[in-house]
Specification:
Blueprint lengths: L4 E5 L8 E4 L8 E5 L5 E5 L10 E3 L2 E3 L6 E3 L4 E3 L11 E4 L2 E5 L1
Antiparallel strand pairs: 1-10, 2-3, 3-4, 5-6, 6-7, 7-8, 9-10
Length: about 100
């Protein structure tokens, strides 16, 4: 990670449309997804209730601390969390996805 940016090679998405990235010196993962329309999204896997690392489930993310659940787009499915997950800004430069932290 340099200048609060992470570079993810687009070639990673040839194997799977979902990649979990843990930037160096960060405590939380980022879920990076290639959508059907060939766009990308990046979600910070940090529960919006009490800032706990989320775990990946079959169709979203779950908080092991109080049981909040989020869908694959970061929307709250079950509380106590009330706010959606943070979407990170992304751009495509050459053969890399650039994620702004």
């Amino acid at each position: 990670m340099k200048d609060r940016k992470i570079e993810v090679p687009l070639s990673l998405f040839e194997k799977s449309p979902m990649q979990i990235v843990r930037p160096k010196n960060m405590f939380y993962d980022i879920a990076v997804q290639k959508k059907n329309d060939k766009t990308y999204s990046a979600l910070l896997l940090l529960c919006t209730h009490q800032q706990t690392q989320l775990t990946v489930t079959g169709k979203g993310y779950s908080c092991p601390l109080h049981g909040s659940n989020f869908d694959e787009n970061g929307n709250v499915l079950k509380g106590p969390a009330e706010s959606p997950l943070e979407h990170l800004n992304i751009s495509v430069v050459n053969d890399n996805l650039i994620i702004q932290i």
